[in-house]
Specification:
Radius of gyration: 20 Å
Strand content: under 5%
Number of domains: 1
Oligomer: single chain
Order of helices and strands: EEHHHHEEHHHHHHHHHHHH
């Protein structure tokens, strides 16, 4: 996908930004340092981490690679945006990717997911205790990598990442608590998403600038960009969890409704969708495996209750806030354009 910039952004850009090539380049730049870090883990955790990250298959053959490496890309971009070299942001890139994958290992276990990206999850292959320990090891390793950085601002970056991890866990804890509640409000769902998704993207978008010793207003602008882009990303992800194409999402059609998940569009419809919301809330409170007909009816209730339209509009509003934050952060032109293009790439998905 190539994102074409218009308006004020175009003045900062040398031309259209090829976001897929951008992400591939930053993934390639980060992977050797990430592999060196993972080599420090104990033998069992190292094996599991290498498999989880997509570097090897269960039989030891080479893997196909992991995800898009959005967070490492943001970390390196933030260093460049602050006028520093990409290498300045590299320890931050490794650290945020380790924290992200710590959270995925634990999420898979808590959600009972036996597959991720069409591959067996770590807990399903090696057991729940192994997944917990591997995730914990990756979390500790993230701080180690940051504190070994040659940047005089390494301690500030490590402190930021520690606070971010606490916020990420808050969001995950609230997500689990919501499963047992029938009265979740829209503002609570937004706050949960800000912790679970937005917090790490906010830090990813700023940690390179922190390592570079950027001014406070630059760091703050980058953090706001990452938080708002993360919120937009989660809203779109929630829409894809109901209406997304399985060939694109890697999940069954209507996957979030199959688990009766109280995602943001669902919560909006239940709380503010009138009669459709009341019907949806009653259905969510039921037990048992839903039929295909029930799933399609539930999706229609989310739509009739306004959840689909609200989530799409809120995602656009959040992305606008993200871009405005960049405008006030006094960033270098090329990285500014790349950040805008990356945010649009993540949030302008079809649903």
């Amino acid at each position: 996908m190539t994102a074409t910039l218009t308006g004020t952004d175009a003045a900062n850009a040398p031309g259209p930004v090829d976001v897929k090539a951008l992400l591939a380049g930053y993934r390639e730049a980060t992977t050797p340092a990430l592999q060196d870090a993972v080599e420090r883990l104990d033998a069992a955790s190292r094996e599991q981490a290498r498999y989880h990250l997509g570097w090897v298959e269960l039989d030891g053959s080479p893997g196909r690679g992991g995800g898009k490496a959005v967070r490492p890309a943001l970390a390196i971009l933030s260093a460049r945006a602050a006028g520093a070299t990409p290498e300045t942001g590299l320890p931050g890139a490794v650290a945020v990717e380790l924290v992200h994958n710590f959270s995925l290992l634990h999420d898979d276990l808590m959600d009972g997911d036996t597959e991720r990206r069409h591959r067996t999850t770590v807990w399903a292959q090696w057991g729940s205790s192994a997944a917990i320990l591997c995730g914990d090891a990756m979390l500790a390793l993230a701080q180690e990598v940051l504190l070994e950085s040659t940047s005089p601002h390494a301690a500030a970056a490590a402190r930021l990442l520690a606070a971010t991890t606490r916020e990420l866990i808050r969001g995950q804890a609230e997500d689990l608590a919501f499963e047992r509640r029938d009265d979740v409000e829209v503002h609570e769902a937004l706050s949960m998403a800000a912790g679970k998704t937005g917090s790490l993207l906010a830090t990813s978008a700023a940690i390179g600038a922190v390592l570079a010793g950027a001014p406070a207003h630059t760091v703050a602008g980058l953090q706001t960009y990452g938080l708002e882009a993360g919120m937009a990303f989660q809203l779109v992800d929630d829409l894809l969890g109901i209406w997304g194409d399985p060939a694109v999402t890697g999940k069954p059609v209507l996957s979030d409704l199959r688990s009766r998940k109280k995602s943001q569009p669902v919560t909006y419809a239940v709380r503010r969708g009138g009669d459709a919301g009341r019907q949806l809330g009653a259905w969510l409170a039921q037990d048992g495996e839903p039929t295909e007909a029930e799933l399609h009816h539930a999706a229609a209730l989310v739509d009739r209750g306004g959840g689909r339209a609200w989530a799409a509009a809120e995602a656009r509003r959040r992305m606008d806030l993200a871009e405005r934050a960049l405008g006030g952060a006094a960033l270098a032109g090329g990285p500014h354009a790349e950040l805008v293009a990356l945010g649009r790439y993540l949030t302008e998905r079809e649903f």
